[in-house]
Amino acid sequence: MRKRKVGRKFSRKSDPRRALIRSLLNSFFDKEKIKTTEAKAKEISRISEKFITKSRNNNLAATRFFARYFEEDMVRKLVKEIGPRYKNRKGGYTRVIKLGQRKSDGARMAIIELVK
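^ that's the sequence the OP posted. Answer follows.
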């Protein structure tokens, strides 16, 4: 049973799933707006909210935490630009806009973006 288990599987084993999420997060924080499937957008939203909350502190512990997931320039952008931008906001840093179905396979698409 799946009681109280968090996160989507995306029909992948754990390592490819972790790589997919890391890649999507990297693109999302780099461009601040990406187009992907609705399920992936919702999962990225859930994870990125936690990352942005942690980056608001702008301390060494947060920098070292992000260094495990991202490269140096992305860590710098998260801690120096994105975190301080939401210093006075209590959550809701991302927005998921549903677009409709993709023509080729019918997957529901969405845009995820950072709230200004």
